[in-house]
Amino acid sequence: MKRYIYLLRHGETEFGKEKRYLGHIDCNLSSEGKYQAMRLGDIFKENKMEIKSIFSSDLIRCKDTIKLVFPEREVTYLRELREINMGIWDGLTFEEVKSKYAEDYINRGENISSFIPSNGESFIQCQMRAIAVFKEIICSTTGNIAICSHSGFIRALLCNLLNKDLKEIFDIKQSYGGINIITFDNYNFVVEGINLKNVTC
Question: Where does substrate bind (predicted)?
């Protein structure tokens, strides 16, 4: 039986307008982010989309998003659904990293797949984590699923499902409050929609 997996990016954060590295650091949703989350909730209601299980990153920006999308529903929060770990860069602006860690900043740009900031993880490591938890969620559930996570995590997972090289990771657009649709028929995963703002059922 065909199953639908709705992979959601959290709403805009309080740092949403800034060019800042946000990994495992916690931050709140902005007012716009809360609106985006409520709009996601409206989409699921209007389309009467049946969701059997709901999962989310345990970081505040995802927890607050999923509570607004599915109020009063049980949610399983998993650390494994967190954003890529940016280590000592976490919370710093692009300009601060460029100034404090100039050589590493250049190295990451040249080796986006494998570069690891101090105390952080690479996109390869993030992708392996994403694939593992995604398969675990699929195998431990039935029916349609909603998962709320982060742009880096989602892009890394989609690269795998689309057979794309991680060097192309930023070619996959992920807007705040965007929806990605993946279907599973017990044999194959198919990416049916990326970064959607609405869904027609």
Answer: 61
Query: Mind listing the pLDDT tens digit of every residue in the chain (201 residues)?
Result: 899 999 999 999 999 788 899 999 999 999 999 999 999 999 999 998 899 999 999 999 999 999 999 999 999 999 999 999 999 999 999 999 999 999 999 999 999 999 999 999 999 999 999 999 999 999 999 999 999 999 999 999 999 999 999 999 999 999 999 999 999 998 899 999 999 987 765
Number of domains in the chain: 1
Give how far the C-alpha of residue 89 lies from the chain's centroid of Cα atoms, to the nearest Å: 19
CATH number of the domain to which 114 belongs: 3.40.50.1240
Residue numbers belonging to the annotated binding site for substrate:
61
Active site residues: 10, 83
